[in-house]
Structures are given as structure tokens and as C-alpha cells.
Write a structure and sequence with these properties.
2 domains, alpha/beta, single chain, TIM Barrel, 3-stranded parallel β-sheet, 48% helix
Length: 389
């Protein structure tokens, strides 16, 4: 059975086909109908994978554009919003209201039991279907060091910096993937690429202080995740390991050269699908000084460095926008992050305000409006590739 969105697209395509048939010869009309009929039959059985995201796939692009064109601007912008649920997240009734009103594109699951989260995902999916909205992208901070704290009842997991080789990494990732699939999570905000085991925010969430080892094990984590159908995320760009302090509590700085930056280049080249940007200020750097703002809000870092210089074509997601002191000091941080080039806005305080602010800015700035539309198209493409659209 076709999804309501697919029915709308099909109806539009049929109208276009009828128009062609009324203006062409009978033989050509029959041929066009035959091709169209086969396209519809094949479309229902065609499945994409995460490998398709970076591929030049005309049919995938056509489907993304078709869904995009059938959405209004408010619903498009809402795709950029990732709200939260579970302990330390928003109450379920608030999330349910957001889903009914089509004001979120996804949900990060905070602390909760395996079955509680599984039932929560099923409930939210049902509401999204009833609202005739784009399916939700569910995510979690399922790093090895954080899994047991996020998913109560999951198999006992050690610290990330206890993982010593690729074989051990694969074993850990397989367990994590199975847990995420059981619950219904598509997107893992892991692994941590920061080079440190002593930073206040990172601690044992890192693979240690050897860049070669960290790159190798992060890449192994990413490849095993994405091969299993789970979107992986390299974080915290441009590097949170060699700084002092914790962005949850204060502004922290990269003073001068970004020493962890090159660790991202092989990870990007090998196809990581998302990168999370940290709320870290860069100062005394002639090319990428952020002017006192966190990297998340800096176009120099997100667009000029990550997207253009480093040629990252996947989804850029912010770190949490709701509690981290380094970013909550800004009244309009989510809009600033979007203007900087971030595609996904994680846990904004007020989703409706964010949507309204972005829509208002799009009216004022056509170039920004096109940037937002490009972000939305990438999000829809990811949803097709992960199998929920």
C-alpha cells in the first residue's frame, strides 16, 4: 500500500502523463503509459541503502524532489528540527504536539528503558502517520561509553577508550546496532573523534590520545554502523579533545591552530554521513577565527571550512542547543546555526520559534532560502536512504 505522500506524487504524475497523452500521437501515448506503469511498479519494490546517499542516482533525486515539491515551506523547515524525548528530554505530550503540528523532523531519545523507548518510537511513528507527515528520524547518543546510560537494560558496555583494535570495535558496534534497531533508532551520534582521554567533556568517550589509533577505530565504527543501516556521526568538529573546559558549562577555545582538524579528512573521504559541530570558539587563527562565537554559529567553520574546503557533502548537525552555556547565551542560536550552514538543529528550546525565525529570514534573504531548501533536500535524501521514506 502506498504512503499518502506517494499517492499525492502519483496523482500529480498521472495528471502530467494525461497532458502528454492529449498532445501526442496515439502510439507515443501508449508507449509513454507503458513506461510510466513500469516505473510505478518498480518504484514500489525499489529499496535504497545508505551507500546511495553520495551516489549520483537520478531516480533517488527525482523522488526527493517530488516529496519536496509536495511540502509547504513550514513543513520543509521543520525537517531540520530534532527534538528530544525521554528523561532529560521533553515530555511525551509536548513531543506528540510537535508531531501532530508537523514541527519536528526527528527525535533524539535521551535516557530511558529499552522497551519504553521502543513503545515511544512506535507511538510517535503512529502519530506522524496519522498527521500525514514525513516519517521521523530517530537518533541517540549511542557511543560505547554512553549506551548503558541512554538505553537502560542494554547489554553491559565498557568505555570507548577500552577498545583496542578493529575486531573488538566491530563486536561492540554490532551490539550497539542491534540495540538501536530493536528500539527503532536510525541515527547514532557516534563515534567521538576527539583526541583525548582527559578533557572534562570527553573523558573516556574518546579512543585515546593517539591520532592514528583514533582515526582507525572511528573509521571502523562508522563503516560497521553504516553497512548495517545505521547513520554514523563523527564528532565534535573541529576538535574538542585538546581544549580545556566543557562546553556544557562555559565557552571553551581553540587558541591558534586547529590541531585535530586533519583527523576528519580521511573520515570524510571514507564516507561518513554526518558530522556534529561543537560549540567551541576558535581564536587567534588567521583563516578561521570565529569572532567570539561558537563554531556551530560560524559560517567560516561550517560552510567555508567543513563543507567547501574539506568537501563534506553529508549532513551537518549542531551539538545540543538547549542547555550548553557556550551557545545558550545567544538569543537566536538555532537561526544563527542554520545560517552558518548546519542542516540539522539538535534540541532547540522552542521549535515553533525556530521555524518562524527561519521562515522570516528566508523571505528577507533568497540565498539563505535556497540554502535551507538544500538542507531539506539532503535530509529527505537521507530518509530515503535509511529506509523510512
Amino acid at each position: 500500500m502506498l504512503h499518502p505522500l506517494e499517492l499525492r506524487i502519483l496523482n500529480k504524475s498521472i495528471k502530467q502523463l494525461i497532458k502528454i497523452m492529449n498532445t501526442t500521437s496515439k502510439i507515443f501515448s501508449c508507449f509513454a503509459f507503458f513506461l510510466f506503469f513500469n516505473l510505478i511498479i518498480n518504484a514500489q519494490s525499489y529499496e535504497f541503502s545508505l551507500d546511495d546517499f553520495y551516489e549520483d542516482n537520478e531516480y533517488l533525486t527525482y523522488l526527493v524532489d517530488s516529496v519536496f515539491e509536495n511540502m509547504n515551506e513550514k513543513d520543509r523547515v521543520a525537517q531540520m528540527i530534532i527534538t528530544s524525548a525521554g528523561e532529560n528530554g521533553k515530555p511525551d505530550h509536548t513531543v506528540e504536539r510537535l508531531i501532530r503540528n508537523k514541527m519536528t523532523g526527528g527525535v533524539i531519545l535521551m535516557k530511558g528503558g529499552r522497551d519504553t523507548h521502543k513503545n515511544r518510537v512506535a507511538k510517535f511513528n503512529k502519530l506522524a502517520s496519522e498527521a500525514n507527515s514525513i516519517p521521523l528520524l530517530f537518533s541517540m547518543d549511542a557511543e560505547p561509553s554512553l549506551l548503558n546510560g541512554r538505553l537502560i537494560g542494554s547489554p553491559k558496555m565498557g568505555q570507548t577508550n577500552d577498545i583496542k583494535d578493529i575486531h573488538q570495535s566491530d563486536s561492540v558496534v554490532n551490539i550497539i546496532n542491534d540495540e538501536l534497531k530493536y528500539v527503532g533508532v536510525h541515527h547514532n551520534y557516534a563515534p567521538v573523534l576527539d583526541i583525548s582521554d582527559s578533557n572534562a567533556a570527553i573523558k573516556k568517550r574518546s579512543y585515546g590520545n593517539d591520532p592514528v589509533k583514533a582515526i582507525e577505530l572511528c573509521d571502523a565504527f562508522i563503516q560497521a554502523s553504516q553497512a548495517s543501516g545505521i547513520i554514523a556521526t563523527a564528532k565534535h568538529f573541529p576538535g574538542h579533545g585538546l581544549v580545556k573546559g566543557d562546553t556544557h558549562a562555559q565557552s571553551v577555545y581553540i587558541d591558534g591552530e586547529m590541531l585535530e582538524l586533519d583527523n576528519y579528512r580521511p573520515i570524510i573521504d571514507n564516507g561518513v554521513l554526518t558530522v556534529m559541530v561543537a560549540h567551541i570558539v576558535v581564536k587567534n587563527n588567521s583563516n578561521y577565527n570565529t569572532g567570539g562565537k561558537p563554531a556551530t554559529l560560524s559560517r567560516k567553520i561550517v560552510t567555508e571550512l567543513l563543507k567547501e574546503e574539506m568537501n563534506f557533502k553529508g549532513l551537518v548537525i549542531t551539538d545540543a542547543l538547549n542547555i550548553m552555556k557556550a551557545v545558550t547565551i545567544y538569543d537566536n542560536a538555532p537561526l544563527m546555526a542554520s545560517k552558518a550552514g548546519c542542516d540539522l538543529l539538535l534540541m532547540p528550546k522552542n521549535e515553533q520559534n525556530v521555524i518562524n525565525n527561519i521562515l522570516n529570514e528566508m523571505v528577507k534573504d533568497p540565498n539563505y532560502a535556497e540554502q535551507v531548501n538544500e538542507s531539506v533536500r539532503k535530509i529527505l535524501r537521507m530518509k530515503f536512504c535509511v529506509g523510512i521514506l
